[in-house]
Structures are given as structure tokens and as C-alpha cells.
């Protein structure tokens, strides 16, 4: 796995996605979830799509619980500007569904399965799911 760590934003795809978040706000989050949630149950979820959904879910969780410690520092201001819209958009359910799918069957999960820190990655994703409970 070519990542600097097990966190969501230790991944280039997630960092790239969040850098464009500020301009689109809640719409970007909704789109990241829809890409996964609109797939058929057995469809393959590519690593970049999974990374975008996890990044979007981190934003939803942070908007909900105020814990920005999981976010890159440069994303915090954009989150604060969009927090009301994110919470109003009712994205918790869509986020939980997308994150569950990433965790069950995705290229990103497969990449982590063979890594020594794979269990840490999975624990982090499960923690994210807990933060998304409404």
C-alpha cells in the first residue's frame, strides 16, 4: 500500500479530493457517496472512489461531532464554512452506507489486507463508522 499511514488522509487520492472540497461543499460529499451507493451490490469499488468516499465521510463526521483532528489542517476552514450545509443535507445515512461498502469489498480494502498495518486501517474505518452513527 503506497500510503504514509493508516489514516484516511495519509492517502494521495483522499488529499487530492479534499483539496477541491471547499468549492463544492456538501455537493462534493453527496457525489462521493453516490458514486458508491449507486453501484450494484456486487460491483467493484476502485481504490480512488473508496478513498474519496472515506474523505467525504470524515468531513460529515467532523461537521457532526466537531472533531477536526482527523482532517488535514488546510481543510478545517472549508469544513467550518460548509458545516451547516453538510449537516442540513442529511448525509449521515449515505455516508454510513458508502463506508460500509468500502469496508466490506473494495480495492482499497484489498490493498490493506496484505499490509502489516491493515488491521489499524480497518480499525480507523470502523471508528469513522461509529462517528457517523446518528
Number of domains: 1
User: Could you tell me the mean pLDDT?
Assistant: 93
**Spans of at least 5 consecutive residues with low confidence:** none
Question: Largest beta sheet, briefly?
Answer: none
Order of secondary-structure elements: HHHHHHHH
Tally the beta strands. 0
Round the Cα radius of gyration to an integer and report it: 13 Å
- What structural class is derived from the secondary structure elements? mainly alpha
Which term fits the overall shape?
globular
Number of helices: 8
The CA-CA distance between the termini, in Å, is 32 Å
Strand content: under 5%
Helix content: 55-70%
Short characterization:
By secondary structure, this protein is mainly alpha-helical. The mean pLDDT is 93. It contains 8 helices and no strands.
Amino acid at each position: 500500500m503506497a500510503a504514509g499511514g493508516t489514516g484516511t488522509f495519509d492517502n494521495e487520492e483522499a488529499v487530492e479530493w479534499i483539496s477541491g472540497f471547499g468549492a463544492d461543499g456538501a455537493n462534493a460529499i453527496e457525489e462521493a457517496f453516490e458514486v458508491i451507493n449507486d453501484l450494484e451490490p456486487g460491483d467493484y469499488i476502485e481504490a480512488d472512489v473508496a478513498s474519496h468516499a472515506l474523505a467525504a465521510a470524515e468531513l460529515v463526521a467532523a461537521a457532526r461531532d466537531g472533531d477536526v483532528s482527523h482532517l488535514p489542517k488546510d481543510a478545517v476552514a472549508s469544513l467550518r464554512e460548509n458545516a451547516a450545509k453538510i449537516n442540513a443535507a442529511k448525509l449521515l445515512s449515505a455516508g454510513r452506507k458508502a463506508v460500509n461498502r468500502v469496508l466490506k469489498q473494495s480495492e482499497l480494502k484489498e490493498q490493506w489486507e496484505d499490509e502489516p498495518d491493515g488491521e489499524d486501517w480497518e480499525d480507523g474505518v470502523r471508528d469513522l463508522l461509529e462517528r457517523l452513527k446518528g
